[in-house]
């Protein structure tokens, strides 16, 4: 009797060899993504899908069987690698739906590469070795000959049937899980990817005629005051909204070894209205999603970036509201307008004009376009010109220099970091935000010198997080713990500042109530004295409401939301979800209720139904 050694068995049985290779790669992916890492049950979740693919090869590949194995191995390897890298950037499990992002990903390749730990590349080591072997004719010929033998058909049928049964066993009971990461863990990564391709994507939409502001306010439990605070206080003033790239709230009044990181913003905060419990509501589109949410007071779509999904819609918006009041409207961004489909978004929002890279040029370039200094200098001059036409203006200004991975040129350094911050992700982030604050200070002084500042209502907010928890290494986490005096958490990650400044109106005051980007439009409308009675929106005026529910998507699992005291992060549903105190003190008293959970989901459905059924301007 001839006994095969393990080495011999693997070399003559490609179905065993490649299955073992994929098991090792699954181990790497699970250790990176899932909190509990790899366990023996992972084998029953990942290997059955792999065996289905390899059984099909054994059935149908009479020639070049090894080549088909290599192709299948490469495809599944690329899927796992994409899942790892996407998780490190967004904290979610990537699916085929992200293919529309390919152009955007190539544009942010520096950000992607910065997230890559060298050991991630081990996922490709077998492919490199096999490629080398195939270029050695004798070795390659022997391997092809040995691996070309057909497996026993009955064994293949049995293996295929058992694998199908195990895949269905992993997928079917877990389809209803709200948390996408938990769902991928319950199903297995490759099963989850297949499920997302074949699952029914149609969402049951509500009749838009039944979606009224009264209905939305009832779900949100908003009661409109008879005499709103600050109503019309800024009537007729220019409106300048500044969107700060990757700007998180912990930067406000932060000192590193006695050095102020953002002295100019700190001055604004300490002299004006400041909302410290303000949160991002963006998704796959990041900065462009923030532009959408702030200008519409709608939520981002369930899948994809708002600019891609809603870019052709006739959107009710802040620019249109202000144009009806005689305002001149414009938006400023130093990247090309085609990036994230902004050329269509700006038509949908109704801006009179946009200013992009063609206007700002490529001098003093950082990342995608001109630096913040160039952005603010040329924007100030243009606002001066706009102010001469006798009409108030609305300008939405998108800063960009402090962009991931935050490696700004040395000539932009405006502060010296302590040694422990050098060559760290957190250190690069702080230094880039210090420069962004420097450029902002120049802009404010310029606006004051031109006489624009005193005549304007100015809002500043962060567009989205800059330091994802899942992107930080041990040193970065230690630095964040030093800054916060405790462990850096999810509530900190999505917390951004909102500052409202207007000469003669605002004064130093810190507001404790919960707010999000969806609340900017109604807050501005109240200050300007513009009625929203006939304007569907999902936010609320922050000066006249104390209770709020903020649904979250993408960076947090579907079903997650913020209530007045807590962040709730969904599990399979509400019962197995997690509660995080907004105070960051680790106290979880389950203040976020199941009723709020259901209402948050209802709000998302109302927004999805309303926006997706708006008419297209392309068909006009």
From TrEMBL:
GO terms for molecular function: metal ion binding; transferase activity. InterPro entries: Alkaline_phosphatase_core_sf (IPR017850), LtaS-like (IPR012160), OpgB/LTA_synthase_biosynth (IPR050448), Sulfatase_N (IPR000917). Substrate binds at residue 403. It comes from the Bacteria. It is a multi-pass membrane protein. Pathway: Cell wall biogenesis; lipoteichoic acid biosynthesis. Mn(2+) binds at residues 245, 287, 463-464. The chain crosses the membrane at residues 15-34, 40-60, 67-87, 118-135, 155-172. The keyword Manganese applies. It is found in: Cell membrane. Signal peptide: none annotated. The active site is at 287. One of its GO terms (cellular component) is plasma membrane. Its main location: membrane. It holds the Pfam family Sulfatase. Residues 237-530 form the Sulfatase N-terminal domain. Keywords: Cell membrane, Manganese, Membrane, Metal-binding, Transferase, Transmembrane, Transmembrane helix. Belongs to the LTA synthase family. PANTHER family: LIPOTEICHOIC ACID SYNTHASE, PHOSPHOGLYCEROL TRANSFERASE I. This is Phosphoglycerol transferase MdoB-like AlkP superfamily enzyme. It comes from Paenibacillus prosopidis.
């Amino acid at each position: 009797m001839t006994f095969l050694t393990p080495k011999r068995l693997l070399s003559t049985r490609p179905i065993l060899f490649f299955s073992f290779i994929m098991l090792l790669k699954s181990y790497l992916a699970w250790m990176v993504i899932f909190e509990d890492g790899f366990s023996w049950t992972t084998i029953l979740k990942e290997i059955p899908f792999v065996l289905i693919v390899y059984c099909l090869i054994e059935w149908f590949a009479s020639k070049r069987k090894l080549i088909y194995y290599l192709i299948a191995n490469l495809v599944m390897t690329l899927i796992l690698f994409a899942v790892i890298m996407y998780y490190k950037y967004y904290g979610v499990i990537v699916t085929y739906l992200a293919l529309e992002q390919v152009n955007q990903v190539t544009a942010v390749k520096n950000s992607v590469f910065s997230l890559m730990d060298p050991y991630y590349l081990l996922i490709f080591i077998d492919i490199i070795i096999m490629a080398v072997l195939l270029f050695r004719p004798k070795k390659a010929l022997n391997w092809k000959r040995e691996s070309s033998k057909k497996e026993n058909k009955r064994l293949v049928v049995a293996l295929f049937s058992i694998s199908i049964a195990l895949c269905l066993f992993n997928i079917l009971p877990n389809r209803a899980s709200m948390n996408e990461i938990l769902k991928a863990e319950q199903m297995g990564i490759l099963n989850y990817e297949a499920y997302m391709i074949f699952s029914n994507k149609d969402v049951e939409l509500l009749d838009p005629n039944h979606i009224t502001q009264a209905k939305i306010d009832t779900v949100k439990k908003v009661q409109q005051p008879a005499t709103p605070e600050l109503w019309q206080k800024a009537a007729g003033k220019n409106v300048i909204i500044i969107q700060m790239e990757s700007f998180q709230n912990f930067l406000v009044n932060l000192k590193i070894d006695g050095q102020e990181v953002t002295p100019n913003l700190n001055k604004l905060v300490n002299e004006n209205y400041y909302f410290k419990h303000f949160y991002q509501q963006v998704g796959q589109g990041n900065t462009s999603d923030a532009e959408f949410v702030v200008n519409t007071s709608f939520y981002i779509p369930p899948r994809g970036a708002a600019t891609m999904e809603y870019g052709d819609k006739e959107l009710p918006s802040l620019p249109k509201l202000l144009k009806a009041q005689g305002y001149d409207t414009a938006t400023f961004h130093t990247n090309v307008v085609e990036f994230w489909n902004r050329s269509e978004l700006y038509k949908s929002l109704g801006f009179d004009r946009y200013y992009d890279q063609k206007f700002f040029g490529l001098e003093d370039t950082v990342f995608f376009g001109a630096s913040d200094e160039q952005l603010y200098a040329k924007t100030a001059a243009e606002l001066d010109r706009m102010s001469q036409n006798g009409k108030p203006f609305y300008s939405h200004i998108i800063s960009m220099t402090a962009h991931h991975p935050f490696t700004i040129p040395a000539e932009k350094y405006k502060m010296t970091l302590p040694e422990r911050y050098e060559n760290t992700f957190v250190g690069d982030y702080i230094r880039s935000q210090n420069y962004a604050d420097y450029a902002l200070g120049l802009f404010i002084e310029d606006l004051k010198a031109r006489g624009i500042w005193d005549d304007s209502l100015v809002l500043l907010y962060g567009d989205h997080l800059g330091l994802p928890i899942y992107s930080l290494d041990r040193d970065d986490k230690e630095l964040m713990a030093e800054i916060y005096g405790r462990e850096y958490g999810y509530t900190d990650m999505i917390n951004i500042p909102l500052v409202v400044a207007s000469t003669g109106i605002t004064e130093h005051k810190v507001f404790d109530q919960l707010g999000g980007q969806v609340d900017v439009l109604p807050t501005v409308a109240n200050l300007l004295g513009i009625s929203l009675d006939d304007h569907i929106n999902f936010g609320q005026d922050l000066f006249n409401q104390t209770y709020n529910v903020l649904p979250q998507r993408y960076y947090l699992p579907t079903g997650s939301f913020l209530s007045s005291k807590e962040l709730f992060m969904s599990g399979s549903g509400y019962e197995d979800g997690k509660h995080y105190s907004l105070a960051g003190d680790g106290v979880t008293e389950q203040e976020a209720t199941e009723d709020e959970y259901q209402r948050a989901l209802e709000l998302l459905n109302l927004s999805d139904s309303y926006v997706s059924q708006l008419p297209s301007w392309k068909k006009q």
